[in-house]
Amino acid sequence: MSSAKKRVIISACILGKFCRYDGKTKEISAVEEAYKGWEIIPFCPEAPLFGTPRERINVVDVDGEHRIITDETEVDVTERLRGEIKRFCKEHSDVDAIVLKSKSPSCGYGTTPILDRDKNELKKGNGIAVDIFLKNYPNTPILDENHFLDD
Fold first, then answer.
1. Does residue 140 form part of some domain?
2. In this structure, is residue 2 part of a structural domain?
3. Strands (E) located in the chain
4. CB atoms within 10 A of CB 56
5. Quick check: 127 and 65 in contact, CB under 8 A?
6. I need a surface site. Which of 11, 65, 99, 125 has the fewest CB within 10 A?
């Protein structure tokens, strides 16, 4: 039996990192507490690419495909984010759990607003990282911070 620590990917903003688009954090100490004794791997694909603070991004349905588009300048950054997330997955190929930030265009799991080109919400869906994580970590449970909050 291996004595290696279990490994968990957690959205960096939940861990108290000031990496959100607005330069703030969404720290939730209950998440880190739940994984005490685990190796915690912070995850934020946006900050290394675009800096902090930065322009907000959205998931936009473009002809049936979900694209990541900057809010004000309307630049499509989908491929840059995919590349960063895939690089992260290669670097961290073996994990036991994933906890992501709900509603995030990168990390939301079924909670991210999917917009049309006029920024009207069409439905809720996944952020770009979730779909890549589901392929790269098919047997790994994915939760969001709401799982750790009291009602």
1. yes
2. no
3. 7-11, 39-43, 57-62, 65-70, 97-100, 112-115, 121-125, 142-144
4. 13
5. no
6. 65
Residue-range definition of the domain harbouring residue 20: 7-148
- CA-CA-CA-CA dihedral for 58, 61, 63, 69, to nearest 10: 0
Question: What is d(CA 20, CA 40) in angstroms, rounded to the nearest whole number?
Answer: 19
Q: Is 80 inside any structural domain?
A: yes
Print pLDDT tens along the chain (151 aa): 455 899 999 999 999 999 999 999 999 999 999 999 999 999 999 999 999 999 999 999 999 999 999 999 999 999 999 999 999 999 999 999 999 999 999 999 999 999 999 999 999 999 999 999 999 999 999 999 999 987 5
- Cβ proximity of 122 and 61 under 8 Å: yes
Indicate whether 14 belongs to any domain.
yes
- Please name every residue paired with 67 in a beta bridge, in sequence order, or none if there are none: 60
Domains: count for the chain:
1
Do residues 85 and 43 touch, judged by C-beta distance below 8 A? Answer: no
